[in-house]
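Worked example 2:
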Amino acid sequence: MRVAEGDEVQGGQVVARMDTRDLEATLNKDIAQQRAAERAIVHAGKGAAKSPATDAAFDALMRCRASQRRFRNTLLFVAPDETQLGNAREVMRKALAWKSIVEDSRIQQQLTQGQATDAVFTRPES
């Protein structure tokens, strides 16, 4: 801070400088994650191996019930990456375990205050 409370300042005068290195690092990380996600998105029928899933996605993209779909670019299909499926299952198992710990009154009675607080804050948002 280059001025104190109550000081008069002129228009255009720099009154403070902010260290933005952490913000820039977070932004760069977010941009990298977005680019990775964009690379992971595969247009139905282009680049993906033909399968019942790609057929269903293409059909849903082209038609809405019996008629042609009007806004084809407003659909998003989410499909798991087989290489990450085990990781996704493990995360789900942990989330369900934390949820059961938080919701089970018998277990809650056996926990210390610190453990109970950890259980609440460690549990993923539902």
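The helical segments are 21-40, 52-62, 85-103, 105-110, 113-122. Strands lie at 63-64, 67-68.
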